[in-house]
Amino acid sequence: MTAADDSRALAPLYALLARISLLELDRELLGLLREPGLIEVLDKVEPGCRADVMREWSDRDLEAAAEEYCALFLLPDGAVPRASAWIPGEQEMVGSGVDELVDRVLEALGVTPDGVLARVPRDHLGFLLHLAAVALDDDDAAARSVARGLIDQALAPWVGRWTDAVLARAEQPVYRAHARLLAALLSPD
Fold first, then answer.
1. Is residue 132 part of a domain?
2. What is the CATH number of the domain that holds 133?
């Protein structure tokens, strides 16, 4: 397997992590997480995740997961998934450094955000992960290079601190596995 193949193989993982970052846990996401191979990875990074994901989820269970999502990712005391909350100096610029980088990446890839991506800030973790997934999955080596730059400049500088904050707060195994996978994926080692 070549380095290009390796980076393309990561595109679905980046897309999944983007999905978890952008939207609450629901039955559709649970179905994705139950896929053979993926559920084993989740359980490896967060023991107990498999049992939690595979169990029968009631509407109340989904509501509790949605409440935790909001507490973790939307409320001020949570772990806000935005670069501007974690990169020194970005908050004063309202994410402008990351925003400018994202604008260049969008132009290079010829991508126009739609759906939920059109509604979230450009320095949002889910937006950045989705953009990285699109670039990594591109046939063009230059696009994959753009992905690497995006990851190195817009994600790596802050995601470690963010994942630590999530792990300190999260109870839901899926959100804990999400943080652990991101930390492993973006760690410099």
1. yes
2. 1.10.3480.10
Is residue 189 included in any domain, yes or no?
A: no
Angle between the 173-186 and 156-169 helix axes, to the nearest 10 degrees? 150
Residue 85 CA to residue 95 CA, distance in Å, equals 9
pLDDT score recorded for residue 3: 52
Q: Is 0.90 topped by the overall pTM?
A: yes
Contact 22, 116 (CB under 8 A): yes
Tokens 């053979």, residue located = 36
Residue 103 lies in a domain: yes
Q: Does pLDDT of 92 surpass 70?
A: no
Per-residue CA distances from 11 to 62, 63, 133, 168 (Å) = 27, 29, 4, 27
Partners of residue 82 on adjacent β-strands = 124
